[in-house]
Amino acid sequence: MRYAFLVETYTTERIKVVSVWSEFGDQDLVVRPRSGDPRGRSVLEQMVHQCVSEDLWFRNMLGIDVGAPPLPKQETRTDFIERYVEDSGKRLAALRTKDERWWEEEVKFFEVGRSRAWVMVRRVAHTSSSRTDDGYASHAGPGDSQQLWPHGGYRRVDGQSRADDLCLRKLGGVVEGGACGEVAGR
Asked: Looking at the domain that runs over 4-142, which CATH code has it been given?
């Protein structure tokens, strides 16, 4: 299928979002990377934005409704992760069923007509800024910088992102992803 790359891209973006979120603790949710800069979102604000924004884009522009509230009942890191894993998993399953005609159909993108494929490209670009490892959060300094390594050596200022080797985990087991089999026992 011509648009399979968009489904694959969404698959990796949702893994990256959850992987980055998992590196923060509940005490980090209120932290702003630059306390004096109101433009930088706290970790909690970024999680809320990602969940609400993705829900609105998928429902209103792509026509995919997961039938669940976009935010968890409690605003804890674990609850956000579980809500996002469940909802994005349903979105991914729906995307996997779509044919080329669906992707090429014009839908409303705010006030302009665009193909669903075009909207999805914009969604993925929007999501990349919501992973909290991009933008302001990457400049948070040693105490708050979240660097990811596939072997679990996170919270290292000199770390290198290895998003291709990350996986989504659900309590009690692996959901999907790169080198999950290597780390499943941890």
From this structure: 1.20.120.450
* Domain extent listing, the chain: 4-142
Helix (H) or strand (E) holding 173: strand 173-177
CA distances from residue 31 to 19, 78, 94, 106, 156 in whole angstroms, order as listed: 18, 17, 35, 40, 18
Return all residues near 91 (Cβ < 8 A) that are at least 6 apart.
10, 54, 58, 64, 66
CB atoms within 10 A of CB 38: 8
Please tell me the predicted confidence (pLDDT) of residue 36: 78
Question: Per-residue pLDDT averaged across 10-26, rounded?
Answer: 93
pLDDT at 169 over 60: no
Grade residue 164 by pLDDT with cuts at 50, 70 and 90: very low
169: which strand partners? 174
